[in-house]
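Box 3.1 — From sequence to structure: CoA transferase
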Amino acid sequence: MGALNHLRVLDLSRVLAGPWCGQNLADLGADVIKVERPKAGDDTRQWGPPFLKDSDGQDTSEAAYYLAINRNKRSITLDISTPEGQEIIKKLVLETDVVIENYKVGQLKKYGLDYESLKSLKKDLIYCSITGFGQTGPYAHRAGYDFIVQGMGGFMSVTGEKEDLPGGGPQKAGVAITDIFTGMYATSAILAAVVHRDRTGVGQYIDLALLDVQVATMANVASNYLASGVAPKSWGNASPNIVPYQTFKSSDGWIIVACGNDGQYRHFVKAGGQEELADDPRFATNPERVRHRDTLVPILSAMVAKKTKKDWIDALEQAGVPCGPINNFQEVFENEQVIARGIKMEMPHPKAGKVNLVRSPMHMSETPVVEKRPPPLLGEHTDEILKERLQMSDADIQALKNKGVV
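Predicted structure (token representation):
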């Protein structure tokens, strides 16, 4: 049933950060109700192509983007701008453990669905707000988007090729990392709040900001600046602190070589027939290799270019040097390790018959991840939830549908 099968979550969030958190909780067994706008639903439902194909090979209304972040949830459509919609949310909250929302600061207060209003109904409620810039500060009322925050939080200043090389300049990540990390931090914070509530009976409010998360996840890069006062710069596919720790072009493709210590470096150059590079005092230790990077890297690049990608990977794996290929996603899902770990999974789907998804990476011996339902169709569980949670009759539900509330 999953470790969190005792938790009920009301997910009022859209797009990525909040839904990613909700999916994590659902994977762990929580009953997550995704609240969506009638007719339109979550914006990501239309963020395509590509869209999921039905059994006839035609596009459905389910974008691949939406499918990636909403499995194991139930969907209810609800117009929370109406008094009836607000009343339904309040009734659902009475038997909900966690609320997740990512509306603009103050927007839910006008509907009586902010933390203080809902806390008055349920004292031990855990309420997680996700915004671009948090609930305080001069930017609090600004809309925050992953791309913008990647720039503001310093990530793009250290990502991409070096500015003095062709193609150099700031570069965003290939995936919305700020949203993903925020969803992960939200998951951790919510679980900590659940533990606190279970021990004390007291709920709490969680204020998560994309900008805070982006700066926090810069880790050693931010620490380098704080320690030195020198703003880090972009290094392309190289590390500012370790050499060699980068990509090299072999005779038939690119490889990654990551020498984390002097012993691995010696094995690397020995595999290339140039062990004398490990005895040269300019290159014998990592600090010296970092200082003499511009001299050493061209030598290593010429060395790597003499062999094929397979020859290098075979040789370096035998020598115990961390290395690997740079795969496209066809190669990712054909990789023997990816297959062995079961990362790709298939679930039944009411429109397509089946849908291929990426399995949660959480492997737990006693409470394994739950795979109970595919990403829901828009409003797929509206009737079910209203009957189950609020004991509404068919006539009650039809009246709400006639008014456009659900």
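Summary of the box: Residues 245-333 form a domain with the formyl-coa transferase, domain 3 fold (CATH 3.30.1540.10).
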